[in-house]
Write a structure and sequence with these properties.
Radius of gyration: 21 Å
Strand order of the largest sheet: 3-2-1-4-5-6-7
Distance between the termini: 20 Å
């Protein structure tokens, strides 16, 4: 690994959140840093498709960003040897900042290879409070609290998340709020048929059952409305699922198919019962699609720019009313979506996020 002369060197290390780390690495490079990536050689974040993770990294950052991976299972002796070798190599590369993503402690080999030092590393905590139904939530919550308490700098994606983290972990390090980065998208006209999209990993806290209970209320006024459910997980059984106006794509959605799903929708719905922030919500904005979200976690902040509507969680009638207003008023939908696209271009781009992140490194970690 050879650093770019004079550029601050940043090692981004993660187990999951590889999409986030990779896009941040690309943004940091454009902002004048020299980035490297450290991760594990699995494709779980990409539907288990062999080679998908590395292909995504190479497509996003090109050959200019070094990528190191640790192979095999945690008990693999070869993996521990690889971690030690990487630690030596990364010490020679001499990063000015080691920036890890939450839950990296799932695989202590990554911590060994990254060579994090108490009080000197940065960490991004995406979910200060673990979501209901997540596996190993207690263990992961403990790992994240420990990472936060020993960090020199902490990033979160919303003011409400800063408050949550202070309450549960009481970290000493400064906490900096940066938005979740948004990939460039294409704003397209709204579809002729009023259409809703629920997209992403389907788990208990996502509130899909509330949306399914809201659909019959919507159909009373708007019988032509359609709903697409796209994602991997457990879909709650509700009568609306049997209606032909509901289309279910149960399974991992490849990266390349996501834009067409968003463009085919009038509105994207986040009816969550509990939340921190939402990568799905950030992903949608560049396509000029309005959001209807619930008043939990950082979701109200997501639409505080005027890009969507917020309703109480777990209330099918309130959700149906908000969705009807967007589906029946194209002018409203276009205004909300247009605001979101403008915000994405101005504040939420990965280049803007990288500049703010690099500034925090310099101001709070003393990086030159």
């Amino acid at each position: 690994m050879s650093p770019a002369g004079g550029s601050p060197r940043v090692l981004l290390a993660c187990d999951f959140h590889l999409r986030y780390s990779t896009r941040l690495a690309a943004g940091l490079d454009r902002a004048g840093a020299a980035s490297a990536l450290l991760t594990r050689d699995h494709d779980l974040e990409f539907g288990g498709e062999p080679g998908a993770a590395l292909a995504f990294v190479r497509e996003t950052v090109g050959p200019g960003v070094p990528v190191s991976t640790i192979p095999g299972r945690l008990r693999s002796l070869a993996g521990w040897r690889q971690a030690l070798a990487l630690r030596r190599a990364l010490r020679r590369w001499d990063p000015a900042v080691v920036h890890v993503q939450e839950s990296i402690g799932n695989d202590p080999r990554l911590l060994l290879a990254a060579g994090i030092r108490r009080g000197r590393y940065a960490v991004t905590i995406h979910d200060p409070v673990r979501h209901p139904g997540d596996r190993n939530s207690a263990r992961i919550a403990w790992l994240n609290r420990t990472l936060a308490r020993q960090a020199g700098l902490i990033f979160v994606h919303g003011e409400s998340l800063r408050d949550e983290l202070v309450e549960i972990a009481a970290p000493r390090a400064p906490i900096v709020v940066v938005p979740h980065g948004i990939e460039v998208g294409e704003a397209t006209p709204l579809p002729a048929v009023p259409s809703l999209l629920f997209f992403g990993r389907i788990t208990e806290y996502k509130g899909l059952e509330t949306l399914l209970e809201a659909m019959p209320i919507i159909w009373e006024e708007l019988p032509e409305a359609r709903l697409t459910i796209a994602g991997e997980g457990e879909i709650p059984r509700r009568p609306a699922l049997a209606d032909p106006r509901v289309v279910v794509r149960d399974g991992y959605i490849p990266e390349g198919e996501v834009p067409d799903l968003i463009k085919a929708s009038t509105c994207v719905v986040l009816p969550y019962r509990q939340a921190s922030q939402s990568g799905v919500g950030s992903l949608v904005k560049p396509y000029a699609r309005p959001l209807v979200v619930t008043e939990v976690g950082g979701l109200p902040e997501l639409v505080a720019d005027g890009s969507g509507l917020a309703v109480p969680a777990g209330d099918p009638a309130a959700l149906a009313a908000a969705l009807r207003s967007v589906l029946t008023d194209h002018g409203l939908a276009e205004r909300l979506g247009g605001v979101g696209a403008a915000t994405a271009a101005r504040e939420g781009s990965w280049d803007a996020v990288a500049v703010r992140t690099l500034g925090a490194y310099r101001d709070l970690l003393g990086v030159g």
